[in-house]
Amino acid sequence: MISNSDTKETRAIYAPFKLHRLNVHRSVSANGQRRGKAAEVIGVLDGRERYVSAPRRAGKTFSAAMEAAS
Question: What top-level branch of life does the organism fall under (predicted)?
Answer without folding.
Answer: Bacteria
